[in-house]
Structure formats: structure tokens, C-alpha cells
Write a structure and sequence with these properties.
homodimer; 482 residues; alpha/beta; Arc Repressor Mutant, subunit A; Aspartate Aminotransferase, domain 1; Aspartate Aminotransferase, domain 2; 3 domains; 8-stranded mixed sheet; 4-stranded antiparallel sheet; transcription regulation (chains A, B); transferase (chains A, B); PyrdxlP-dep_Trfase (chains A, B)
């Protein structure tokens, strides 16, 4: 006993000794009122300083786990380790359908297992080598020295005030009329959408969206039991005639649209179509949830204003976004910009569910934006991604015989193969050659898209982009009988 | 025009100039194809360097907002600012009952407005002056230099692996059998509880809990439409006879218990009672959600093991906790420790709702724990809070004629006045004298507790603790007719 004590990590030795003794006591290896070795004995036995042992014993005594008797030494205190016969519940039986569905819809678990050395087009996360870690550290230190204690204590459910002000102004510069609007900071885009859906009454129980669309949004719609009406995508955005027909036929609680660098197709909705969308939904009094996630990653073409700029002082659009696709996704910061009254109610929901979003994340992000690092970083990121984007487009044109390729910017392209070609079978064959991509069917509302796939290029080296696309193209030509 | 440009903050001048011009264009003050002043003119007009203007113009051009014509200058590009007649939706009508209830139950909005200079016993948040900001900065810099790019990119829904490992070991040292158990990291305790409740099937639709209990938990139970069965608190924990009777009469989906430094009473459940609780709930096959939030703030008495240690390899307890009441609440990090299979399903729910908890928060917290700063800080915090705790207890005994006072540790005391005395009326009177506290009725499951209140002392100066309690006592004696 005692001589099996080992240092297991970098923590101070006295802490590790304390933990070791505590564990022995908790597990019943040392019994109540049992005498512990004297500090001198133990320090000799373990070849550590006597002070270390003294510190560990003092901590254990303070925690009430051992007690000292003057002149006699240290003894194990009363620690209830009595175990009742343990019972086994069947947790699966106790879960509800939505939770089992969440498990079933969890794409990450269905992903083909990626192995080291493979070329993976799965990710649309930013390239971490681009991260501006030094300026991020600077922003952290600046903020901490200004108000470290405030940053580390409880904040407001609505969000960190300077960040809210910054973002309101940021959206105003984009052309949004922010009078009577307000912002709620959320744990990224996804929490924003979830809080909104959780808060809306199910009147028709129906949502209208682009088809295909962002799978995390689709998953939330399904978990909330919404009926999903998907509308086909044309090269300049959603098919407006189909929208009109749907709105005449049925009622909808809201529409969910991604007008810029749409996920997964990468399509940018034209400015004419944006206008038509607003006209149509306004007429039918249907709110639009606008997903602005990728808006900043524009490589060419003229500027396009968010849908929200078109409604002026109106309140029918809920804009949800984050900087996760450009800046730092590890920081979970997103925001909802919407009608003031609506934000007021969503704020209560936010408080009930998660109190507030990490103040640290918000404060450092604010400082980073405020110091102008964002502008600089965006320029760098755009130029790197633009190059990859053009390379990937060119390679697809050269090697893959597709029916349609879309992607006007952003971090991915979307490929539609000829009818009848199954992208999942293609994926299986490519996997054997060390290349993986995202099958497109997961983005479809109605089981379609079996002949489509998404190519995320943001985290790949130039040569891997070309080589990977060539392998996909060759496999398609040679192994798919097409 | 242009000469109303002002520097409004600390960001680089060219960024502010760019934003100013962008806003003018978006708002329609500058029209499509309108010529902008030459860089030389504008630099002279605004008394800024020509380079600054060049940078701003270059950015605007890259964003597609202006275009350059060689030899002719810069012109406003095509920016759609067309406004359709804006519509006004009535959002309140479109929200569901739970959301309106969340708004109604939002205590922060009902709080009596605190004014500067008042003595407020409302908060049970940690004292921020105690925060160990320097070591926190150190932990941040250490982690960032080791893997800054990873910390800033997407992480795992389950949580940051080193932190999970650390916490598993931390709970093992407390005596928990962690075989077949796992951890899910959440945005604080509250998200943990919300995800769990959202995932459980409503079989009986009933929850059993202590009465009074933590109001954020009560709020979640109500928002999820659960029927709440509150059980009276005795000085050594929940009334076990009442529990037995309830379990015989009705079925429950789960029980929610706070065995250590219970909120709001501060009571610590005795080790005999812990044992009896486990026996009883095991017999009836009812899972227990154990709230470990304040467990570390023990000032005296013998060590008490979490309920979870009593079930051995069993899986009937879901332990949810965070370090928010001791370390840094601004970091939203909590965890659920439970059956492996259950965690697996909750993880899918977590991913669907918020992707994952801030990696930055998790990684810095991990480093802080790993470097042994937590142990040191805990010692300091305990000794400061212990002093305040003893002072507050002493002052209550001296000045307030209560029926019962509870609080075995932690950051607050709970006072029960004689029957018939309304704590909210007392609060109104004390408010006029500059003292506020938390009325106890908000913690009650059944509309009771009108004669109770909670005194949080963690953020008050010693003299304010005594003076505030004296004012409450005097008001009670002189102005309440008792």
C-alpha cells in the first residue's frame, strides 16, 4: 500500500497525492479511524518532500476526509461508501421519440469513417491554419485587463452589451433598418434556430424551405415534428412559381431561406428574386427566417444585401447568423436579429434554457472585431478560399462529367450527376481509393438527391483538391458504368 | 456630404471610413453610378491620410459596393436598396404557450429594481473580486500556444476530450463508480437539465422534488408541462416519509434532488438520509437527477459523498453539475455524468440543438484545473466565504426573530419567519431603506413560502452583511407589527 502512488500528470505533486489518498479512502482501501503514515514516513517512502505530504494532509483534513489527533497523527474520517444493491434502468425505454430520432438523424455517426491520409471533402469548417491566433490572444488579453472579473462572472441572457451594439451597427451598415429591432446572442446559429422554432406556436405545423437545404436545420424541423415543404432550387435561387403555388395551397408557420451561398448548393439568390420573395411572403403574411451564415464569403459579382434590408421598418424577417464559417467556430456565438418584442420573448426562453452564452466567447469576439482584426483576417481568408474555390471549380469541370454544378462562393461546391447515378455507391468506390465526400441526399426534404454530392474544399491542400476530384471523376467514368 | 464623417470608436480609421461610406450607399444617400470624390480630395476634406482613403476604397471595391474605372475614378456600384411596403406581424400571437410562460416566469424581470448603493442579498453568484484572473490568463495562454487552432475550430458535441477525462477522474475520486458511465459537457447546469428533461418520455408526466427548490429547475419543469410534487425539507434533508407515501400513491418520471447545500435552504442531506433515499427510489425504479452545483462549498462537518457514489455500478442516477458557483460563471460549462447509453442519446440531442459547448471555455477551464489553480483558488474562496457565512449567521441570530434559519454552507442562508408574516411586504419596506433580498415563495412548488426569504452574502462586504441584516431585523420588529 502507498508505494503504488505514481505521478500521472503535470499537476502539483501534493494535489496528486491528495487525490490518490482520497481515492483509496473512497474505494474503501483505507478504513474509518485507520491511522495514516506519518508525514515523515510517507515522504521517505515516496521520495517526495515532507512539505508535499503536509500540504496533501492539510487539504484532506479541510475536506473532512481525514482528521488529526494532536500528538497521535492523522486518521481516516467518516466516509460513507456504503453501496446499496445497484439497479439497472433501461434508459432507451424512458426516452421520447424526438431523442431517438435525434440519434437516428445524427449524421456524424453515419459518416463513413475517415482515416488518416484520406482526402476528405466532408468538411465545410474553416481552415484552422488560417486562424489568426496571435491577434485573438491579443484581443483576449486586452479584454481581460479591462474587465476580466466581469467577463468571468454571470452576464445577461440577451448577450454581452458591447457585442450586441457592434452587431446592430454591423447589420445597419449592411442596409438593415434596425429601428424596432433587437439582437439576442445565442450559442451559434443552431441554438438561435432551435430557440425560435421552440417558441413559435404550431398553427399549420408546416415550414417551407429550399430543397435541398442545410441539414442541421432540416434535423431541427424534423425533431420539432414540422411538415417540410421543399422548393426546388434554380441557378438564381428558389423556384418562385413553386413558392407561389405552395402559398396559395397551404398555410405555413414560417419559411427558412439561405439567400447567399446556400448550403449545400452554394447558389446566391439574385436581387430580382430576393425582391419577388419578399413581395410574395409579405402578401401571405408569412415570416421568413433568413440564414446569413456564409454571407461574407463573396469572391466576385456585385454586392447583395440580405433579405432583411428589403423590409425596411417591417418585422416579418428573423435574421439568424454567426461568424462560425469565417472566424472561430470553437467560439459558440451566433445571433438573432428580429422584431424587438419577439426578441424580448426569445430572451426569456434563452434564459430558461442556458442562462446566457459564454461571456468569455462574446467579449473576446467583440474585442477582436472592435480592434479591426476581423477586416484584415477576412481579406486574407477570402483570398485563400477564392483560390481553392476556383481550383475546385476548374478541376470539377475538367474531370467530373456532371449534369449540373453549383456554387457561387463560400467553402463548397455541389454536384448533380446524371439521373440514375447513385452518389452513395460512388462514395463507396471512392472511399476505397482514399477519397470521401458528403452524399447530397441528406440535404433533401423529400428523399431526393441520390445523384448529388457536396464537395467542401476549405481544409484541403491545393494538390489534394485536384487529385481528389480527379479520383472522383475517374471512378465515375470507369467504375460506375456511366 | 462627407464632412459629417466622424471617428466613433477605436477601430482603424480606414475601417470606419469604409463603414461610413457603405452606410451612405446602403441608405441611398449615394446613388448607383455616382462618382465618389477622388482619394486626394477626400483625404484633404477629412484631414486623413490618402492611404487611409485608398484602403477604404479598395475594401469597398472588393465587397462589390463600388467599382473603379481606369483614369476616371470610383463609382457607386449596383446596390439593391429597394424597399417593399413593410408589413407588421403580431409576433405575440405567433408564439406558443411555453414561451409566453417563460416570459411570465422570468424572475429577473420581476426583480425589484436594484439601485446603486443598495445592499443586495439577491445574488448567489461568486464574488468577482476573488477571481484568479492572472492564473486564468496563464491557463489561456498555455492552452492557446499548445493548440490554439484546434481550440478555435469545431469540436465534439460530447465535449472537449481532456476535460471529459479530467471530470471523470474528478468524480471517481469523489467515490463514484464510473464504469459504464460517461460525461456530456453542456452550456452550464441549466442546459444539462433542459436537455435531459427534453429527452425523457412523458410517462406519468410527474416529477418529485424538494420543496422549496432551485427556481431555474422549477421553471424548466413548468415549461415542459410537468406536474410537480414538492416534498417538505427537514433539517437533515427531504422528509423521507412523505417521499415514501408519494411513491406508493403515484408514479414519477424522475426525482430532482440537491443533496448538498440545497438551494434555497442551504441544507445538507445527512448520510443516513442519502442512504434511505437511494433504497427507496431504487425499490420503485425511479431515476434521480442529482444536482451537485454547490458541493465544493463545504466549510465544516464531515465529508459527504454525492448520492451517485451510493449506486455503485448501477445507472439510476443522473448527476448534473458545474463549477459556476465557485469558479467562473461567465464560462458556460456544466456536465452530465450518467449511464453510457443515456449519454450517447443525449449527445445527439446536444448536437442537434447547439452543436457543442464553446471549445475555448472548455479548453481554458481544463488547463486551469490541470495546472492545479483550482485547488488553490478553492482554498482561498472557501476561507473568504466561510467568514462571510459565519458573520451572516451570527447577524441573523442576533437581529432577526425567525422561526427557522437553515444553511450548512454555500453562499446563502434561508430564513423562515413566523406564519402570517409576508416576506414580500417586508421586502417592500426594506427596499425603502436600501436593502433587498430574494423572496422565498419563488422557490416553492405549491404557492407556499410567503413567510420565507433567501439571503445571498457572497458579493457583499462584511459591514454591509451586518448592516443589511440589522436593517431587515429592525424593519421586521418595528414596521411589521410583529
Amino acid at each position: 500500500m502507498f508505494n503504488d502512488f505514481k505521478l500521472v500528470d503535470d499537476r502539483p505533486v501534493y494535489v496528486q497525492l491528495k487525490d490518490y489518498l482520497k481515492e483509496m479512502i473512497m474505494k474503501g482501501h483505507l478504513l474509518e479511524h485507520q491511522k495514516l503514515p506519518s508525514t515523515r514516513e510517507l515522504s521517505k517512502l515516496l521520495s517526495i518532500s515532507r512539505n508535499t505530504v503536509l500540504n496533501a494532509y492539510a487539504d484532506l483534513e479541510q475536506e473532512g476526509i481525514i482528521y488529526a489527533v494532536k500528538g497521535k497523527g492523522n486518521f481516516v474520517g467518516k466516509v460513507t461508501t456504503l453501496k446499496t444493491p445497484s439497479i439497472e434502468l433501461n434508459w432507451k425505454e424512458r426516452l421520447n421519440k424526438a431523442t431517438l430520432l435525434a440519434d437516428e438523424l445524427d449524421l456524424i455517426r453515419q459518416d463513413i469513417h475517415w482515416k488518416k491520409g484520406m482526402i476528405s471533402f466532408n468538411s465545410v469548417a474553416p481552415e484552422e491554419k488560417l486562424f489568426d491566433v496571435e491577434n485573438f490572444k491579443r484581443a483576449f488579453l486586452t479584454r481581460m485587463s479591462m474587465e476580466g472579473d466581469i467577463v468571468l462572472n454571470y452576464g445577461y441572457a440577451k448577450g454581452y452589451k458591447p457585442l450586441i451594439e457592434y452587431l446592430l451597427h454591423y447589420m445597419e451598415i449592411k442596409g438593415v433598418d434596425i429601428s424596432n429591432k433587437d439582437i439576442l446572442i445565442t450559442n451559434g446559429f443552431t441554438e438561435g434556430l432551435d430557440i425560435l422554432i421552440s417558441s413559435l406556436a404550431k398553427k399549420s405545423g408546416r415550414v417551407l424551405c429550399e430543397n435541398p437545404t442545410h441539414h442541421a436545420a432540416l434535423k431541427l424541423f424534423r425533431l420539432h415534428g414540422l411538415e417540410i415543404q421543399g422548393i426546388d432550387m434554380q441557378d438564381d435561387g428558389i423556384d418562385i412559381d413553386q413558392v407561389e403555388k405552395s402559398l396559395l395551397e397551404k398555410d405555413f408557420d414560417f419559411a427558412y431561406l439561405i439567400p447567399s451561398y446556400h448550403n449545400p448548393t452554394g447558389i446566391v439568390t439574385s436581387s430580382e428574386k430576393r425582391n419577388a420573395i419578399i413581395q410574395l411572403f409579405s402578401k401571405h403574411q408569412i415570416p421568413i427566417v433568413e440564414d446569413g451564415f456564409n454571407e461574407e464569403l463573396r469572391y466576385s459579382g456585385s454586392h447583395l444585401a440580405p433579405l432583411m434590408t428589403f423590409i425596411g421598418a417591417g418585422n416579418s424577417i428573423v435574421y439568424i447568423s454567426s461568424f462560425s464559417k469565417i472566424l472561430f467556430p470553437g467560439l459558440r456565438v451566433g445571433w438573432i436579429l428580429a422584431d424587438k418584442q419577439l426578441i424580448h420573448c426569445l430572451e426569456s426562453m434563452k434564459r430558461a434554457r442556458t442562462i446566457h452564452t459564454s461571456t468569455l466567447d462574446q467579449a473576446v469576439l467583440y474585442q477582436y472585431l472592435q480592434d479591426g482584426y476581423f477586416e484584415k483576417y477576412l481579406k486574407k481568408a477570402r483570398s485563400v478560399y477564392k483560390k481553392k474555390y476556383e481550383l475546385a471549380r476548374q478541376a470539377c469541370k475538367q474531370y467530373i462529367s456532371f449534369k449540373r454544378m453549383t456554387g457561387d462562393g463560400g467553402l463548397h461546391l455541389f454536384i448533380e450527376l446524371e439521373e440514375g447515378i447513385n452518389a452513395r455507391i460512388l462514395l463507396e468506390k471512392c472511399y476505397k481509393k482514399g477519397v470521401v465526400f458528403y452524399p447530397g441526399d441528406v440535404f433533401y426534404t423529400n428523399g431526393g438527391g441520390s445523384n448529388t454530392f457536396r464537395l467542401g474544399f476549405s481544409r484541403l491542400q491545393d494538390e489534394d483538391i485536384v487529385r481528389g476530384i480527379q479520383i472522383i471523376g475517374d471512378t465515375l467514368k470507369n467504375d460506375m458504368g456511366s
